Amino acid sequence: MSRTLAEEDILKVYRETIRPLYAYVSRRVGGDKSLAEDLVQDTWMRALNSWPGRGLPDEPLAWLVRVARNTLVSHFRRHQPELIDPASIAIEDERFSPTAPDTAAVISWGLARLRRAHADVLGDFYFDGKSVGEIAAARSLSERAVEGRLRRARAKLKTQLERIARPRDTARALPQTETEHAPHTRTK
Prior knowledge:
Layout: H1 7-28, H2 33-54, H3 60-78, H4 101-111, H5 116-127, H6 132-139, H7 143-162, H8 178-181
Helix pairs in contact: 1-2, 1-3, 2-3, 3-4, 4-7, 5-7, 6-7
């Protein structure tokens, strides 16, 4: 980290990083503008509290993204999304994308409960649209290793999502009949 910090340095970093930072957060909240703005503002407030004493980081965007990720995790650990129909989220499908706000919130809620390694690989795949090859290259892994990590991470995410799944047959529950309420009698 460099130790010099002037207002113009902060403004320059802000102009260079605000769009990619907002895009990162916005994808993870399904485009919910208000929530994305709040979380980006919180991230920048942390930067403004930290940087005067420590100086600008060597890679400000990487620093901001890491803080934004932690801010997202904190947010989704405190707020549980609405119950979902488990069939509406097909995370095993390679074409699945959490672009809708409700779906993104549910996926982000689940990712906030996973180990960071699992959450990061799923975040890269689902939210950042990275291919298996791109994830492998960024992590110096084979594509086969990334596929295995994705498979294990999806299984862990599915387990988390089952915690907020509403029963599938709630709308089709059969009405109770009067005989179900009557005391049981034995017939000979």
